[in-house]
From TrEMBL:
Record's compositionally biased regions (Acidic residues): 487-496
Record keywords: Membrane, Transmembrane, Transmembrane helix
Cross-referenced InterPro entries: ATPase_P-typ_cation-transptr_C, ATPase_P-typ_TM_dom_sf, HAD-like_sf, TMEM94
Cation-transporting P-type ATPase C-terminal domain: residues covered: 1179-1276
One family name in Pfam for this protein: Cation_ATPase_C
Protein name per the record: Cation-transporting P-type ATPase C-terminal domain-containing protein
Native organism: Cylindrotheca closterium
Taxonomic placement: Eukaryota, Sar, Stramenopiles, Ochrophyta, Bacillariophyta
Composition skew (Basic residues), residue ranges: 524-545
Organism superkingdom: Eukaryota
Biased composition (Basic and acidic residues): 498-507
Length: 1304
């Protein structure tokens, strides 16, 4: 019994952190877990023998290893047993060793990257846990050095509810000496909960872990949604615990917890983080680019084998005993080694690292931690890319820990210049590099779907006024409000009011039709997206280290007011000022009180008792905190009220008014709705106030200090306010008339229509109170002036009329016989960050998809303002619907056949059946409603099943999003906790509250599978920039890869053509030259191509789908293969002509005696064609052959280098997209390699008189590179037309609203 009682005693912050650290340390002690998302690459579109060859890596272990080993053996053999006249034996040996070492390094890179890919996710978790534990220990030591405050603050300036996985938690405080003192409630993310924590949950919440109800010991499973059935209760049993009729509740009454959706206190039975860390990742899909690389690798292996056999056959056929076997036996191996994975893998890793570094550098400004100041020398973009390149290479090779230590030592011990290198290695100021298993570069550039999975990313955190319904002399008048903008050019659409009394009655209908029929009388007016102006809001980026004290709250509040100004569309709105002034005054006074979410500081409790009653009393104070309603302030400012200091006082226009009493009416009718409401029917405003008590109405009694008179002003739910009002105020003629039953019905129907459209409905009323009422206000205790009035009237009858309020002693009669002023409808608007997102994604060919947890009608307004079409094939509900059952929240239409012929499926299973049996229209829809995290994950998987590459954007701190992040191809986590974290002016940490390291850890570990973790919702506007850099990086990397393939093929064909030379003396190609070209020059030109800027149409092209059965598009693979071979022929063939000319001329110049005896006498300059076919020179290996081979090889290098300009852009001509203006690094190295090639000739052939060569030799030397460039440009034009045609087809398919197979 004692142990059971001890279980229900709350734990302290110190004990909670001890349990959390123990959980994480046990996780670190476990062995490494293989990443389930890792999937070995497989080749598809190739013959079975080639697939087997590549899948078994035989091209590495037999091809590359065999060729490099053979060359090493030749080098060793030549050095030991080569001819005496061979002076270059040592250089050839060194070259062969370098060549073999290159293969060894390449093999090591392959193995390390494979290890990094298979362990990437697990290593990432461990690094985040280790970093958190170190930071937590450090901050705990710092925080314990400060005295413990009596009132602790949870540190979060954000609303807490189960919707965003932030829960009310009670913990005791720890003092400096380790003792436990009183505690308080605070808001804590679910991943920081531990077993033993006390949390508060209400009907409609989802349990973050296995929990036990304190009152009766009932256990609720993790992830279970709490309903009345959970406790075996009904609405009647809950209402039966409340007093009947109308009564006044104490401010700390337990009944207030019941009225707040029957909120109760639970004990957490396990640690959610421990369960979260055991989750397995979903197996990722192989991107199309990876399949293409594997296919190209297989085809290059085939060409390598063919070239090796052909070169060997030709050498055998041309073998002569007089030839130097040592100089030719290595040629078949040199010809094939570049076509096997010899150095190509290292180049691919470097290209991927460069592309990833460019992407990370582009998102660095919105992801870097604000509290880390970068050195000015690292602000440069090029240096930032270089630092990310180093960090990515270390990540891909799993060398982070080793080089991190090296970087720290360099930064401390070495010269400041070397310290810069150490800083480049040290990754503390850089954002996290995504693991290789995510395939960031390969997927970001070809993303075809962009999904938003959380409402907080779409909707503003407050509503704005849109329509005001007020009584007038002609009946109820509807005044439209619009955002205040600078230039009023939208004058063609000015529907300012509606005379509802004169319209015929009709049922409210949320129609998509543009008809002006009477069926839409009570429909809120939705402006066209093209006509609707955005609010002129200032950027509200919070600075690091900002204090959230009362002064900052005030300034922030006034700033938000200015940022959300509205104005009346009717230019004659001022005629209603008598009633509008009263409405504006009510808005200001009701919202003037401490209308911010409670800071979590409660009354201190005795640490030894842990009384449940005391916990409930403290919890009541939290849930009764009033929330700021920005729409009321905006309406008041629109009417003309100001809070700026005036001569009457610091409070501006409301300075003369002093609040005397505040009364909150809580209705059981609203409680009944909340207990029975479906989670998909909760509106935006209601979800933001979830976890707090929402009164049906709030009334304030104020005294005008100028006249001494008293006024009662009421703001609340129209159903409650109209029950208090037998009369209405007509401001136009200053007349008070009875509120007729017809007007009352119209007000309620209009409010109901607004609510169905996700508009917040707020009604206003007032009543004068006699001055002698002041005797009730003699109590000096301010807390006694706030009352909670319970209305437990099941009939919801109109309140009785009280003739006199002079002798009123109770609170309820004060609210009787008020005067109705009007009702306001306020929608939630889309965030400014999404303003240009849809149009940018549309132009880029990326499908925008919004997953909303609310039903269709609630989502329609916000979707319309975002720019999503809500008319034809507008939305799909993912909530299952029984056969033949109608959805009451479905968007309906006045089109005759819309409901019959165009009704979309309902639920995941229905969507999949529709895709299989009907058409692909569900894949073209941009709005999915009634979603849960599970159905969202399944719909993302469905998009992938139909070949979409999906980017998912969601809140990083939600553990429920982790399964969606794992399923998506790429995930983007938005961290909203860091900016909402409160920091004290002295920046000191409070031990008995959340620490900064805990806030960082929640987002980091929950979103560990996210490729990007952006800070703040405002960073969402940066996503198009990140997407553009992703496309640019992929295009540049593709061009770089194609050039390297071109270079390898050209080198192989160059050796083959040299073996097939018409000259009897074969060209000399030493191993050192092959090393020089394959391992230095080619990467030196090819890799910088991956730094190229994008083409002008990069973001206007529709990316291809990721169909696993298709590697290349129609004819693309065949064209790529044959055009690649054709492009490589001119650089291989043309230098052979240079060799023939130079060999003949050098022989005439250097070996005249030999020519006279072996060939023909008296040869002169220009007779080179008589020398090349001389049989007497078959075994010649002198200087003339070496010099001529050097000139020929130099020509080959220059041809391949100049031709690289055609690979900067894959389809555009160099005249349309000038390559030299897109990549300055490439231009610099381009000129450097050409200079080295020319210098190479003079260094090798320094004994020859090159100037004596014929003039046409120099001409050919200069024009051959441009001939090769022209030839590649010609073939690139054919490739471009093929790719452009495929892109146009994709654009056509993307922009259609009908299915490709519709109807079946």
């Amino acid at each position: 019994m004692e142990s059971s009682r001890r279980e229900y005693v709350p734990i302290s912050w110190k004990e909670a952190r001890h349990r959390l650290k123990g959980c994480l340390e046990r996780r670190l002690a476990q062995s490494h877990v293989r990443d389930e998302s890792y999937q070995p690459d497989r080749i598809h579109e190739s013959p079975r023998s080639v697939r087997w060859w590549v899948d078994m890596n035989l091209d590495i272990y037999i091809g590359a290893f065999g060729a490099s080993l053979a060359i090493l053996a030749i080098g060793i053999f030549g050095y030991l047993y080569g001819p005496v006249e061979e002076d270059s034996r040592l250089s050839q040996l060194v070259a062969s060793v370098i060549l073999f070492s290159g293969f060894v390094v390449n093999l090591w890179v392959i193995r390390r990257r494979k290890f990094s890919t298979s362990k990437g996710s697990d290593n990432l978790k461990r690094r985040e846990i280790s970093r958190f534990l170190k930071a937590l220990d450090k901050q705990e030591d710092e925080a314990m050095g400060y005295p413990t405050e009596e009132k602790s603050d949870d540190g979060l300036n954000i609303q807490g509810s189960s919707f965003n996985d932030i829960h009310w938690v009670y913990r005791f405080r720890s003092t400096l000496d380790g003792a436990v003192s009183g505690g308080s409630w605070g808001r804590i993310p679910s991943l920081l909960l531990v077993h033993g924590d006390h949390i508060a949950m209400q009907i409609g919440d989802t349990a973050p872990a296995n929990c036990r109800l304190i009152e009766n010991g009932q256990v609720i499973g993790a992830g279970e949604r709490i309903t009345l059935d959970t406790f075996g209760e009904g609405t009647a049993s809950v209402l039966g615990t409340l007093p009947r009729g109308r009564s006044t509740l104490n401010n700390d009454s337990d009944h207030l917890l019941t009225l707040c959706n029957n909120m109760r206190i639970f004990v957490v039975l396990d640690t959610p983080l421990e369960t979260f860390l055991l989750q397995r990742n979903v197996r990722s899909r192989q991107p199309q680019v990876a399949r293409q690389l594997l296919t190209i690798r297989g085809r290059l292996a085939i060409v390598g084998v063919v070239v090796f056999i052909a070169t060997s056959a030709v050498l055998i056929g041309r073998y002569d005993k007089s030839q130097n076997l040592y100089s030719t036996i290595s040629l078949p191996f040199l010809a094939s080694i570049g076509l096997f994975p010899f150095v190509g893998t290292m180049c691919v890793v470097c290209m991927e690292a460069i592309g990833t570094a460019r992407i990370l550098a582009s998102y660095h400004p919105v992801a870097i931690r604000r509290d880390e100041i970068l050195p000015e020398s690292f602000v440069d973009t090029h240096m930032l890319v270089f630092r990310y390149f180093i960090a990515t290479i270390l990540n891909r090779l799993s060398l982070n820990d080793i080089f991190l230590k090296i970087g720290c030592k360099l930064s401390h011990l070495c010269h400041p210049l070397l310290a810069g290198v150490g800083g480049a290695i040290r990754a503390s100021a850089l954002v996290r590099v995504p693991p290789a298993s995510l395939n960031l570069l390969e997927k970001l550039g070809v993303a075809t779907a962009f999904t938003l999975v959380d409402d907080e990313l779409v909707c503003e955190p407050h509503a704005i006024p849109q329509q005001l319904l007020i009584p007038s002399e002609k009946g109820l008048k509807l005044l439209d409000l619009c955002p205040n903008y600078e230039s009023d050019s939208d004058s063609d659409e000015n529907e300012t009011s509606t005379d509802l009394r004169k319209e015929k009655d009709g049922e409210w209908n949320d129609s998509d039709s543009e008809s002006g029929s009477g069926l839409e009388n009570h429909h809120h007016y939705i402006r066209s997206r093209r006509k609707r102006r955005r609010l002129l809001r200032k950027a509200r980026t919070k600075k690091s280290g900002r204090s959230f004290d009362a002064d900052d709250d005030s300034s922030s509040s006034s700033s938000d007011d200015r940022d959300n100004e509205v104005q009346f569309e009717d230019p004659l709105w001022w005629q209603h000022l008598p009633s509008l002034k009263c409405i504006g005054l009510a808005c200001m006074l009701i919202d003037e009180n401490d209308c911010t979410f409670s800071d979590g500081a409660g009354t201190s409790l005795d640490a030894r008792s842990g009384s449940l009653d005391a916990l409930k009393a403290d919890l009541v104070r939290l849930i009764c905190a009033e929330q700021r309603r920005m729409q009321l302030r905006s309406l008041a400012r629109c009417i003309g009220f100001s809070t700026k200091e005036t001569i009457e006082g610091e409070r501006g226009d409301i300075s003369p008014f002093s609040e005397k009493e505040r009364m909150h009416v809580v209705s059981t009718a609203r409680l009944t709705e909340s207990l029975q409401i479906d989670s998909h029917e909760i509106g935006s405003e209601e979800s933001r106030c979830w976890g707090y008590l929402r009164p049906a109405s709030t009334s304030v009694i104020v005294q005008d200090t100028r006249t001494g008179s008293y006024q009662l002003l009421t703001v609340g739910d129209p159903r409650m306010v109209t029950r208090m009002c037998p009369q209405a105020w007509q401001g136009e003629n200053a007349t008070i008339l009875p509120l007729s039953a017809h007007d009352r019905s119209t007000i309620l129907e209009t409010s109901k229509g607004w609510k169905l459209g996700d508009l917040d409905s707020t009604a206003f009323s007032y009543s004068p109170i006699p001055p002698n009422f002041a005797r009730r206000l003699l109590d000096s205790d301010p807390s006694s002036r706030k009352f909670y009035l319970l209305d437990n009237d099941p009939i919801e009858s109109i309140l009785p009329v009280v003739r006199s309020k002079i002798a009123i002693e109770s609170e309820w009669p004060q609210l009787f016989n008020q005067i109705f002023l009007g009702v306001l409808g306020s929608p939630v608007i889309p965030r400014q960050e999404t303003e240009g997102l849809l149009s940018t994604l549309q132009d880029a060919g990326v499908r925008f998809v919004y997953f909303s947890p609310r039903n269709m009608r609630l989502t329609k307004e916000i979707a319309s303002q975002m720019g999503i079409d809500v008319a034809w094939n507008c939305a799909i509900s993912l909530r299952p619907l029984d056969q033949g059952k109608e959805d009451p929240h479905r968007m309906v239409s006045n089109y005759a056949d819309w409901d019959v012929n165009a009704k979309l499926p309902h639920g995941i299973d229905s969507v999949r059946q529709h895709l299989q049996e009907v058409d692909n229209v569900p894949l073209l829809v941009s709005l999915f409603t009634d979603v849960t995290k599970e159905t969202t994950k399944e719909m993302v998987r469905t998009f992938q099943d139909y070949n979409d590459t999906v980017i998912t954007v969601g809140l990083a701190h939600l553990p429920r999003n982790s399964r969606i992040f794992s399923t998506a191809d790429l995930a983007v986590g938005i961290d909203v906790l860091t900016d909402s974290f409160k920091k004290t002016p002295s920046m000191q940490c409070n031990y008995n509250a959340l620490l900064p390291s805990e806030i960082d850890f929640v987002a980091a570990i929950s979103g560990h599978l996210c490729a990007f973790q952006l800070r703040g919702v405002a960073s969402l506007a940066y996503m198009p920039t990140i997407l553009a850099h992703g496309r640019a990086s992929l295009e540049a990397a593709t061009g770089s890869a194609l050039y390297l393939i071109f270079g390898y093929l050209s080198f192989a064909f160059y050796i083959f053509c040299s073996v097939c030379s018409v000259s009897t003396t074969l060209p000399s190609i030493p191993i050192i030259w092959a090393v020089f070209y394959l391992q230095l020059l080619l990467p030196l030109i090819g890799l910088p191509i991956s730094l190229s800027d994008p083409g002008s149409s990069s973001m206007d092209r529709v990316p291809p789908k990721n169909d696993p059965t298709i590697t290349f598009g129609k004819k693309e693979g065949k064209a790529l293969s044959w055009h690649g071979i054709h492009k490589s022929i001119p650089p291989a063939v043309l230098p052979q002509l240079i060799y023939l000319i130079c060999f003949g001329e050098f022989m005439i110049q250097l070996e005249p005696v030999l020519l006279d005896s072996a060939c023909a006498p008296n040869l002169s300059t220009g007779d080179w064609f008589k020398v090349i076919r001389c049989t007497g020179l078959r075994g010649y290996s002198g200087d003339a052959r070496v010099y001529a081979s050097a000139v020929s090889f130099s020509t080959f290098v220059i041809c391949t280098t100049v031709t690289s300009a055609a690979f900067i852009h894959r389809t555009k001509s160099i005249f349309d997209e000038r390559p030299w203006s897109k990549n300055y690094v490439w231009v610099t190295l381009y000129l450097l390699v050409i200079a080295l090639a020319v210098l190479f000739v003079y260094l090798v052939a320094q004994d020859a008189e090159i100037s004596s060569l014929p003039w046409y030799c120099f001409l050919l030397y200069g024009i051959m590179p441009f001939i090769c460039l022209f030839w590649v440009e010609l073939l690139k034009g054919k490739d471009g037309s093929l790719l452009d045609r495929a892109e146009k087809l994709r654009r056509l398919q993307f922009e259609t609203r009908l299915g490709m197979w519709s109807p079946k």
